[in-house]
């Protein structure tokens, strides 16, 4: 095997987009209080990405602590079932069980460079909160994680883990008590404590420079997977599939293939219980442009611009907005976005358990369903690469509850 | 005189520098606690000495607001409040004799959905004179400032203790009403008050601009307001009024009483 494949992938570093704009999307729509902090963060990130020492330290952490590179695995039984070659990028095998650690490690290294001793984060499924709490333990930083009360109930094990790691989990009781409200509350904390606090946003959303910063830190998924696919198959995948809540694992894996115009990109959103208002989280498929949590993107909202509540069986996709770069990719047609509903995701969850011995996160199960469905088209050609963004241990209770009806 | 220069003239006059304690700018949330309470509260706020009244339009995700305004906004939305309805109520209040300058405060997304130009024109027609959008920093405000200038609506900009001087100057130049000085890093409502950072911000702003300065966020006590004499031209009072209105049998009366309590008896 090519020795390069056994090293962590490189970050795909680009200049920040001017004014944080992705076409008409992106920008910085936040209270004045944090505007100087956003400028400081952008400057710190640009300097860090140009500093070989920073990149080396991050690569060492990736290799020795997080477990990169993660394997790119040919799922032969799933492929046979689908009638299409399916490869899984195994972010579920990363330390803490999801791709979120890529972002948390990078942002906390940055926070340390900026001299910020206190960290706040929001979390939905708990995976980003867990990754942040983990990295805070490692770097000896104070950690507060905001989490909707409804999500704390759904993801009790992750709450317990964060507590064990020394983080304080703050229940959020406003609005729908899920990721949207936890994000608002984390931003309010940051506005209040901005001088000594870094806000580790968990997805490729939020005001500039966050979408660019998170994408860069997650691009390790795509750069690694591209090399691995070339090494293993001698070719690029025909299609790359990933689930999209805010869209960080998707933009991370897409980043590796954006310049390969023959590789199609497919983002999979939460179709929830159906496409009625408040029943799903498919902002790219069914939303309109709007501003939420600091950036302009597609948004689920009513006629008056009030943000809709959402539903998904997976807490990580239960979000009314989406990262601005995805909005641009949808607008330009470079990527396609579809919705997969709760039942389809659950069926895919069971399928992967039985065929491959892998329990996927319910978020990732949405992408598995979409990949398998591609095989129904007789003309479809593989290999299809799926980002298996996280593992499903956190979802066992939800799955059992659902199966018992 | 262009619409641009005219916009905000009444606001600036109403908050003109004077000896003694700052002018009061009471905040009323449209549709809170009930849909029909907007107009009586606007009238009561004027009668009780409000020099300018700030009318909040509820938004589902108000990033700059603490629990009191968040909860009030949720309740107002549940009461069926909308941008269009709030503007209708402003028109009603004007018809009933409300004379005080009105500044609308709301977040960007509801305005974007109505269309910035449409909103500004409709607001001016209804009798609104100024607009304050807390999630719209200078860098993103060009479109709104253009639309507002065209409609003759004043724009109020915000500065915070973390705002460096160059931004403060720019914000003051862009404001056609007053400069909203945020008293501390943080959100609206209760919190540690009278930290030095608000006073320092006012002192810095005074050096850099002649536009009226209003201090907001966490202003809720008479002595606190009196101590701002000579520093602030106005104070924005919000959460304490919403708390008074929340469970009152007569919210307008409660707002009036609370507001009178924030002025020294002559």
Largest sheet of chain B: 8 strands, parallel, barrel
Question: How would a crystallographer describe the biggest sheet of chain A?
Answer: 6 strands, mixed
Class per helix and strand makeup of chain B: alpha/beta
Distance between the termini of chain A: 47 Å
**Percent helix range of chain A:** 40-55%
Structure write-up:
Chain A is α/β, with parallel strands linked by helices and 405 residues long. In chain A, the strands form 4 sheets. A 6-stranded mixed β-sheet of chain A has the order 3-4-14-9-10-13, with helices on both faces. Chain A has a 4-stranded parallel β-sheet with strand order 7-6-5-8, sandwiched between helices. A two-stranded antiparallel ribbon of chain A has the order 1-2. Chain A contains 15 helices and 14 strands. Chain B has 266 residues and is of the alpha/beta class. In chain B, helix 12 crosses helix 13 (251-261). Chain B is globular, with a radius of gyration of 17 Å. Chain A binds chain B through residues 19, 27-37, 174-175, 180-181, 184, 187-188, 191-195, 288-294, 299, 301, 303-307, and chain B through 59-64, 66-67, 70-71, 74, 77, 82-84, 107-114, 134-140, 158-164, 167, 171, 182, 185-187, 191.
List the helices and strands and how they pair.
The complex is a heterodimer of chains A (405) and B (266).
Chain A: E1 21-22, E2 25-26, H1 35-49, H2 52-66, E3 72-74, H3 76-82, E4 86-90, H4 100-114, E5 118-123, H5 127-139, E6 142-148, H6 149-154, H7 156-164, E7 168-172, H8 179-193, E8 197-200, H9 210-233, E9 239-243, H10 248-255, E10 264-272, H11 283-286, E11 288-292, E12 295-299, H12 324-332, E13 335-341, H13 342-356, H14 362-374, E14 384-388, H15 396-403
Parallel strand pairs in A: 4-14, 5-6, 5-8, 6-7, 9-10, 9-14, 10-13
Antiparallel strand pairs in A: 1-2, 3-4, 11-12
Helix pairs in contact in A: 2-4, 3-14, 4-5, 4-9, 5-7, 9-10, 13-14
Chain B: H1 3-6, H2 9-14, E1 23-29, H3 38-47, E2 53-56, H4 67-78, H5 83-95, E3 102-105, H6 108-114, H7 116-126, E4 130-132, H8 142-151, E5 154-159, H9 165-174, E6 179-182, H10 196-208, E7 213-216, H11 222-226, E8 234-237, H12 239-246, H13 251-261
Parallel strand pairs in B: 1-2, 1-8, 2-3, 3-4, 4-5, 5-6, 6-7, 7-8
Helix pairs in contact in B: 3-5, 3-13, 5-7, 6-7, 7-8, 12-13
């Amino acid at each position: 095997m090519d020795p390069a494949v056994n090293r962590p992938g490189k970050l795909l570093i680009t200049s920040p987009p001017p004014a944080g704009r992705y076409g008409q999307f992106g920008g910085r729509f936040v209270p004045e209080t944090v505007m100087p902090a956003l400028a400081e963060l952008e400057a710190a990130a640009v300097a860090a990405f140009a500093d070989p020492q920073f990149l080396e330290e991050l690569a060492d952490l990736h290799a020795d602590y997080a477990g990169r590179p993660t394997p790119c695995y040919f799922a032969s039984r799933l492929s046979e079932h689908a009638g299409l070659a399916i490869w899984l990028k195994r972010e579920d095998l990363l330390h803490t069980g999801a791709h979120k650690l890529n972002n948390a490690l990078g942002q906390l290294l940055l926070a340390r460079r900026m001299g910020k001793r206190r960290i706040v984060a929001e979390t939905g499924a708990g995976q980003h909160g867990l990754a942040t709490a983990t990295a805070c333990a490692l770097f000896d930083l104070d950690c507060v994680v905001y989490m909707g009360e409804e999500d704390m109930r759904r993801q009790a094990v992750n709450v317990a883990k964060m507590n064990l790691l020394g983080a304080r989990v703050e229940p959020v009781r406003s609005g729908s008590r899920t990721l949207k409200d936890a994000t608002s509350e984390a931003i309010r904390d940051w506005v209040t404590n901005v001088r000594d606090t870094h806000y580790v946003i968990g997805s490729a959303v939020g005001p500039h420079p966050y979408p660019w910063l998170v994408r860069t830190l997650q691009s390790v998924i795509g750069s690694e997977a591209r090399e691995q696919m070339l090494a293993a198959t001698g070719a690029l995948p025909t299609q790359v599939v990933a689930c999209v809540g805010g869209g960080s694992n998707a933009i991370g894996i897409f980043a590796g293939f954006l310049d390969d115009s023959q590789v199609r990109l497919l983002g999979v959103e939460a179709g929830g219980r159906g496409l009625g208002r408040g029943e799903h989280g498919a902002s790219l498929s069914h939303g309109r442009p709007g501003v939420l949590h600091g950036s302009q993107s597609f948004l689920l909202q009513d006629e008056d611009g009030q943000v809709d509540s959402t539903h998904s069986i997976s807490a990580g996709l239960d979000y009314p907005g989406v990262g601005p770069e995805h909005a641009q990719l949808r607008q330009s047609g470079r990527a396609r976005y579809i919705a997969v509903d709760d039942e389809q995701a659950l069926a895919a969850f069971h399928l992967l358990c039985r065929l491959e011995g892998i329990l996927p996160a319910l978020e990732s199960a949405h992408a598995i369903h979409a990949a398998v469905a591609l095989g129904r088209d007789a003309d479809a050609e593989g290999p299809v690469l799926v980002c298996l963004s996280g593992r499903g241990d956190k979802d066992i209770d939800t799955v059992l509850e659902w199966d018992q009806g | 005189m262009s619409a641009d220069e005219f916009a905000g003239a009444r606001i600036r006059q109403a908050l003109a520098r004077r000896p003694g304690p700052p002018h009061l700018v009471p905040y009323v949330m449209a549709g809170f606690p009930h849909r029909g309470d907007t107009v009586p509260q606007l009238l009561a706020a004027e009668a009780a000495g409000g020099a300018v009244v700030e009318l909040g339009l509820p938004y589902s995700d108000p990033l700059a607001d603490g629990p009191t305004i968040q909860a009030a906004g949720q309740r107002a939305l549940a009461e069926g409040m909308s941008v269009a309805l709030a503007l209708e109520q402003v028109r009603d209040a004007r018809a009933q004799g409300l004379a005080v300058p009105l500044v609308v405060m709301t977040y960007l997304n509801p305005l974007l959905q109505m269309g910035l130009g449409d909103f500004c024109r409709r607001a001016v027609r209804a009798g609104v004179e100024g607009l304050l959008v807390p999630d719209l920093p200078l860098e993103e405000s060009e479109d709104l400032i253009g639309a507002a200038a065209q409609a003759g609506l004043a724009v109020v900009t915000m500065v915070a203790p973390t705002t460096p001087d160059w931004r403060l100057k720019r914000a003051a130049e862009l404001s056609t009403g007053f400069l909203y000085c945020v008293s501390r890093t943080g959100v609206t409502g209760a919190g540690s008050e009278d930290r030095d950072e608000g006073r320092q911000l006012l002192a810095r702003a005074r050096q850099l601009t002649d536009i009226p300065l209003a201090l907001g966020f966490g202003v809720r006590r008479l002595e606190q307001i009196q101590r701002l004499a000579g520093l602030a031209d106005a104070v924005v009072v919000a959460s304490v009024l919403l708390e008074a209105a929340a469970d009152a049998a007569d919210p307008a009366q409660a707002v009036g009483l609370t507001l009178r309590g924030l002025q020294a008896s002559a």
